[in-house]
Design brief:
Blueprint: H1 2-33, H2 38-41, E1 44-49, E2 63-70, H3 85-95, E3 99-108, H4 114-122, E4 125-134, E5 137-145, E6 151-156, E7 166-174, E8 177-185, H5 190-202, E9 211-216, H6 224-232, E10 255-260, E11 263-269, H7 275-278, E12 284-289
Parallel strand pairs: 2-3, 8-9
Antiparallel strand pairs: 1-4, 2-12, 3-5, 4-5, 6-7, 7-8, 9-10, 11-12
């Protein structure tokens, strides 16, 4: 038994080292590929749109389903193949969530916009903010919603010259009030990530209504940033976050759903065969109870 545990610990350490190397390599590729134009590189809101064939939706009850999903620029499990947004779109359709936060969304400079195509195909409203402009297109975070978006804002979280990050917030109106959905993708570096969390927690626009913070928190280990989130948002399902990365054999709980003013009643990773191939992250899905 002791030998088995030592073997498991060695395997976990090996996986952690491999993951750290991969993430550093990804960051280096991002820096090489980023445009040098400061105007284009500045984080900015790019899209707020209703689906072209919007269908009437039932008013939300007290229980809704939300999800967060890092789609890895539509490039699948290893990030080296051609882009195929249809894979991630199929996974999103599998979840059938009312609200979905997306990270690492790529909107190419040429050809069809996969985010608009996804919005129209599924009849979802969409908001998108670009964190940076890649040589192939804009990369950022998006929010998809079954219900119309009543307001949208953006918070620039680029506190490091090495990483450009952003949070996008969408306000949804329900019969009993409003709900703010915040989608973000936090930095790899601990110090920068902590500054980003403090900026999110202190932002006045996120204090006035019940809030769900969804995204890839890069919480691959316990640090000041994750501790601050755990202390501030106590209304998630539990502290045993579901592992979501890497998708083929998840070890790290990078993707999370934090709640303030609403209650998360169920939380888990969406581990379908399609989800294990569509991105290097699994989606995380939560059932949420709105206040009466």
């Amino acid at each position: 038994m002791a030998l088995k545990k030592r073997s498991e610990r060695r395997a976990a350490r090996k996986t952690a080292r491999k993951t750290a190397r991969k993430r550093k390599a990804d960051a280096r590729r991002e820096r090489r590929a980023a445009t040098v134009s400061p105007h284009l590189s500045t984080p900015h809101l790019c899209l707020l749109r209703a689906p072209s064939m919007a269908t009437p939706t039932q008013p939300a009850g007290r229980d809704i389903t939300v999800a967060t999903y890092n789609v890895h620029r539509w490039t699948g499990l290893n990030g080296r193949g051609p882009t195929d947004p249809a894979r991630a779109a199929f996974v999103i359709s599998e979840m059938n969530a009312d609200v979905v936060a997306l990270q690492e969304v790529m909107r190419p400079h040429r050809g069809e916009d996969p985010l608009i195509a996804l919005s129209d195909a599924m009849g979802l409203h969409v908001a998108f903010a670009a964190a940076r402009v890649h040589k192939r297109g804009e990369i950022g975070n998006a929010i998809l919603s079954r219900w119309p978006i009543a307001g949208v804002s953006m918070l620039d979280l680029s506190f490091s010259r090495m990483e450009s990050r952003v949070a996008v917030s969408a306000r949804l109106k329900f019969r009993h009030g409003a709900l703010d959905i915040v989608a973000t993708h936090l930095a790899l570096a601990d110090r920068t990530r902590h500054r980003q969390v403090r900026a999110l927690l202190d932002h006045p626009d996120l204090q006035s209504a019940p809030t769900l913070l969804l995204g890839d928190m890069n919480a691959w280990r316990q640090c000041r940033a994750t501790q601050a989130l755990d202390d501030e948002f106590r209304e998630h399902h539990n502290l045993d976050w579901p592992a979501s990365f890497p998708s083929a054999a998840p070890v790290f709980a990078l993707d999370r759903v934090y709640a303030r003013g609403v209650r998360v009643t169920k939380l888990g990773a969406h581990m379908s065969r399609a989800a294990q191939r569509a991105s290097d992250h699994l989606p995380v899905v939560a059932s949420v109870r709105l206040p009466a």
